[in-house]
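Researcher: Go.
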Amino acid sequence: MCYHPGAMELPSLQSVHVLVVGDLMLDRYWIGDARRISQEAPVPVVDIDHTEDRPGGAANVALNIASLGARCTLVGLVGEDEAAEQLRATLSAAGVTCDFITIADWSTIVKLRVISQKQQLIRADFEKKLPVDVRADVEVRVKKYLDSATAIVLQDYDKGCLEDPQREITAAVAANVPVVADPKHKPFAKYAGANLFKPNTGEFAAEVGRWADDSDLVQKAIEVCRAHNFGAVVVTRGGRGMSVALADGRRQHIPGRPVDVFDVTGAGDTSAAVLAVMTSLGWDPVAWAQVANIAGGIVVGKLGTAAVTGPELAMALAATDRGDRGILTRAQLIDAVQQARGSGQKIVFTNGCFDILHAGHVAYLEEARALGDRLIVAVNDDASVTRLKGKGRPVEPLERRLRVLSGLSSVDWVVGFPEDTPVSLIETLQPELLVKGGDYGPGEVVGADMVNAYGGEVRVLGLVEDCSTSAIVESIQKG
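Model: Structure:
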């Protein structure tokens, strides 16, 4: 049975010591205004007014771990140059213990981004092929810290530090230290035995091929778990959240958070950092991913490579009664309902157009949520709203309506549907309680006969006077 935290709380992390091993980078930003086009070529001219250097790659993972309040030791490769000194100074000031392997006649990897009006105009990468074999040096340093580590992160960007990750995994397993592996382009077998394996959708598809739907994705992830002796696979899916699968068949879809995205740079690093910290605390894999998903939602709201602090994450967790709430596809919702019901939770279902959310909607959704453990809100798509409400409706497209509803504390899961009525969804999900707001009679609620037939309950909730989307639209149109 998957773990579903109630009110999530971030405990003290003073006992956590994460060892991060991987490819180091310096993310350099040149920032200024672009008000004219060059006469030499059709490109903007940026008047640089300030520059910033930030740790990137595995260094960003380490910075995130330290920012959360845990101890961190970082092992990676640098050159004999100014970029290495900048990395060391920034990380040391943040509390990260740096044990760098300095490579002669090689340059620290630098990624330069030119930014104007919060938009990235160009990226230039400065990197050279690694001239030496460092596998033995990396392994020696890893073994040096395993006795005190509560988890190890292998942050692989295919730049040479983790040429053979099996060396580090074997050493960690022997020392009983859990491993979080964030891969790049290597075959998954190279990371066999990791406790948690975190590919993104591109990396996952490159290994297993495309999938038909979300159920097929998690089935492939379960098979990957079993084939390579992973404790869990977490597939990160950008704005669609994460999908978690365990070798024993457990799985969970964790929706993306409703946030404004400024920059996705480093979001994967933040997720890896949080997963390692949660692993150190002994939390369930689903809970690991739920917290990492929330942290990722925070960091994409920041510009450039950024870290999430302990207070930021603690506040976000305190405001989140469950980490798996949000917008789901139909297949994801079926999975979520099955698992919630398996843990004894009561499912409440309601539906509507929800075009221009008003106080009446909010009141009845709060009342509906109080009647059970999970509230599903099914929302008519744009075409069906037009069929039901007429030309000019909906005012807000489905994506926006779903997002607004998912932000309400009373709502657990939101799903769109293309039919005029939710009968098909009700038949598939079979909620314990079907509710509607307004002036319906119990026999007038769509799906009521079906719910009553299988032993469920149907209720019509209170009506808030003077609240009507149609009336609001009419008032706006009349000025």
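Model: The chain has two domains: 17-323, 327-477.
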